[in-house]
Design a protein that fits this description.
This protein has helices at 474-480, 483-492, 596-600; strands spanning 26-41, 57-70, 73-80, 87-95, 99-113, 117-118, 127-128, 153-154, 157-172, 175-196, 204-226, 230-243, 247-251, 269-273, 278-291, 295-308, 334-350, 353-366, 372-374, 392-394, 399-414, 417-431, 437-449, 455-468, 513-524, 530-542, 549-567, 570-588, 606-626, 631-650, 666-682, 685-699, 716-717, 726-738. Strand 23 and strand 24 form a beta hairpin. The protein is globular. The protein is 3% helix and 58% strand.
Length: 739
């Protein structure tokens, strides 16, 4: 294994600097300079996902924490990770108790994949083309796409975020004013899916490198006035997002005959829309008032406006499509207004007894019009949807209103022992959903005590019951389909066939639910320099009325941690956490068309999936100081593993061609060891070194067996390849100089 520390001796000239100490006024702080090298086998984006260190590389270590003071005036500067792709710098100046100004700059990478490949030219642009002479086919097999292997080319999937922020703060007596402006640029390439085809048998997909050219501007203004008995604050925030790319066009590598004597030509050049420009305004007014009997009333009123008015793309980019009715409007003209009101009253009228009451209103007003769109499926050369077809659909202005009421009280039943009781009622009304209203009542009780010396214990219990109005898919189905389509379904299949999802299907966010949560915690401090804590939690959600959909989910966790400092020069810690996540969901296999009703009534077409995820994490570490506190050593080790399985059962009438089977187990494992030492050469000069070891393994059937742009999945031209296991050693040396 290579051991390259190309920057091992960086900054050694600092050894000649004179000793210094910080005065009350004047400069102070620390400067750090050094270098390191990482040895990674093999290269893996997962290793350096957020810092860019994913392969053999020498890097610079640089940081600063500097300050300068002169009376009430000051100047601070801080810099972190200057030599990495992830870096940050911050500067602030001002006068204590009067004003301050600051500027901040940061960069953060996001490595997405280093095992990606595509046959398309132009990655990173908005126009992806096929190489000259490339043979398009009905699938990715060698017989259909003989040029596939010869035309694969690597593509880098990575995002780089650059953010700059500046602000001003001033205080005068009881009044504060603050103004902040920020801009974030995100550039690079990620992935998106492109599809073509008319129906399930002829649909094809291709992974596309999506260009990213995002700019987000943020403005925040805050003004506050604070008195002993009264406080008030006003805020305004504006977020404006713009995308330099409106859409992505790509040459289609597939060419499929729809069959049945009809040829629906795939688009030779297809188009995918990209995130539209949008903006958000938010006005907020909040305040608090101190009342008699140790009481306080607080309130928050917010009003937000979300807007999106991008030009709409035409129905089809395919010149062979027959479009007789254009898109009904030129621009999105989308707006959602949000109202948020929160009221809270807390009181402690007598010693040992406290009471809190609260109310919350959250309401959306969706101003999008209900508009009919007659789509062309996936840019296939065909007529646009007739009014009698399923893909002639209305856009729906979804809205909801939440009213939430809270009440809880605390009472000291014994010395150092507190009992808390709580009640929450949550009422949500929804437009264009299968359930118009849900009511949820939650009851909470908890007790905490430190009655026994050196021991604190807590117990908590929560039960919640959510019930809704009758589940009725027609509340949604009838609104986004045309009347002509529904009349046609009734005429051919009957009124009982007016559904997309199975009639017994219950979507989990609006389905009736019984929720249970309980937990316990204990902390023992046998001596002044040691502690041991235990946390146990359990939760269960039951969807008893959901014959189809999520039926049940359970979560269990146990955490144990301890720490001891046997001397002022040493401390040791250790922890262990176990989590278990289980879920059960039920589905019902049925086809459309003439078999829709028969299949949806056949109970032997049910299937059930059992999800089970198990996660363990443990670690230990120590901090040591020796040689009369001239030397410090930090050691940390952590190990985590996870496993996940999905098992199935299926009814006897499900075709063997589509019967669900148990999926291979998903497994991950990560080991990390970090050792950092520092030795003080002088009062103001230290030399340090560090070592880090990472070992990652993953077994993921969804990624491991599929190379990018391969023939592994005949109807999908993949873009991203497997996530590599890796082992990495990182070493570094550095000098820290104190002013």
């Amino acid at each position: 294994m290579k051991r390259k520390f190309g920057m091992l001796v960086l900054g050694l000239a600092v050894l000649g600097l004179p000793d210094a100490s910080r005065a009350a006024d004047g400069p102070g702080g620390t400067l750090t300079l050094g270098g390191g090298f990482i040895d990674a086998r093999p290269e893996s984006f997962k290793l350096g996902e957020y810092n860019g260190l994913y392969k053999d590389k020498a890097f610079l270590l640089g940081g600063a924490d500097l300050s300068y003071g002169q009376g009430a005036y000051y100047l601070d500067f801080r810099a972190y990770d200057i030599g990495l792709d992830k870096r940050r710098a911050y500067a602030e100046a001002g006068r204590l108790g009067a004003y301050r100004l600051f500027v901040e700059y940061s960069e953060t990478p996001k490595l997405i994949s280093n095992s990606s490949a595509t046959v398309l030219d132009g990655a990173g642009s908005t126009n992806l083309t096929l190489p000259g002479g490339f043979t398009r086919g009905t699938n990715t097999s060698l017989a259909q796409m003989p040029d596939l292997a010869d035309n694969r080319r690597s593509v880098r999937l990575r995002l780089d975020r650059k953010s700059a922020k500046a602000g001003f703060y001033r205080t005068s007596g009881a009044t504060e004013v603050e103004l902040t402006v920020a801009r974030e640029r995100k550039e690079g390439t990620k992935y998106i899916g492109g599809t073509s085809g008319y129906s399930g048998g002829q649909t094809r997909s291709v992974g596309l490198p999506e260009p990213v050219d995002y700019t987000t501007d943020v403005l925040r203004l805050r003004a506050a006035h604070t008195k002993e008995a009264f406080q008030a604050e006003f805020q305004y925030a504006l977020s404006d997002f713009s995308n330099g790319d409106r859409s992505l066009t790509f040459a289609n590598p597939f060419d499929v005959d729809a069959g049945g004597g009809v040829l629906y030509d795939y688009c030779d050049e297809c188009r995918v829309s990209l995130p539209p420009d949008n903006r958000h305004h938010r006005l907020s007014l909040s305040g608090g008032l101190n009342l008699p009997y140790h009481s306080r009333l607080s309130a928050t009123l917010e009003y937000g406006i979300m807007e999106q008015d991008e030009n709409l793309l035409p129905y089809s980019h395919n010149s062979g499509s027959t479009v007789t009715v254009d898109v009904p409007k030129g621009r999105a003209d989308a707006e959602i207004d949000v109202t948020h009101l929160a009221l809270n009253l807390s009181s402690r009228p007598v010693a040992g007894f406290g009471l809190r009451a609260g109310y919350r209103l959250y309401k959306t007003e969706n101003k999008l019009s209900r508009t009919l769109f007659r789509y062309v499926k996936n840019d296939t050369a065909q007529p646009q949807a007739a009014l009698t077809e399923a893909h002639a659909l209305y856009s729906l202005p979804y809205d909801y209103t939440q009213n939430q009421f809270k009440l809880d009280g605390t009472y000291s039943v014994l010395p150092a022992t507190t009992l808390r009781l709580g009640y929450v009622r949550d009422v949500i009304n929804r437009d264009y959903r299968e359930v118009e209203r849900t009511d949820e009542d939650s009851y909470k009780v908890s007790v905490s005590t430190a009655y026994v010396p050196n021991l604190s214990v807590g117990l908590d219990y929560m039960q919640a019951d959510r019930r809704g109005t009758d589940y009725d898919e027609s509340l949604l189905y009838d609104k986004y389909h045309t009347q002509e389509y529904m009349d046609d379904v009734v005429a051919t299949l009957g009124a009982d066939a007016l559904f997309d999802n199975h009639p017994l299907m219950r979507k989990f966010d609006v389905a009736s639910r019984d929720r249970l949560r309980y937990g316990a915690n204990a902390t023992l401090t046998p001596t002044h320099n040691s502690s041991l804590s235990l946390f146990v939690n359990y939760g269960k959600d039951d969807y008893k009325d959901s014959a189809v959909g999520l039926r049940q989910s359970k979560t269990s966790s146990v955490t144990l941690d301890g720490a001891i400092a046997p001397s002022e020069n040493a401390s040791v810690y250790a922890f262990y956490t176990w989590e278990d996540l289980k879920a059960r969901q039920r589905g019902w296999a049925y086809n459309g068309g003439g078999s829709k009703l028969a299949h949806s009534a056949d109970a032997d077409r049910k299937w059930t999936a059992f999800h089970d995820d198990d996660i363990e994490t443990w670690g230990l570490g120590a901090k040591l100081s020796f040689l009369e506190k001239k030397a410090d050593l930090d050691v940390d080790y952590s190990f985590s593993r996870s496993s996940g399985s999905i098992r199935h059962t299926a009814g006897s009438d499900i075709s063997s061609a589509v019967i669900p089977t148990d999926l291979p187990e998903l497994r991950t494992r990560l080991k990390t060891l970090s050792v950092t030492g520092k030795y003080r050469l002088r009062a103001n000069l230290s030399v340090g070194a560090g070592y880090r070891y990472d070992d990652f393994e993953s077994d993921d059937w969804g990624n491991d067996n599929f190379e990018p742009s391969s023939t592994a999945v005949t109807n999908v031209l993949t873009l991203v390849g497997p996530v590599s296991d890796y082992e990495a050693h990182t070493g570094m040396v550095f000098l820290t100089y104190s002013l």
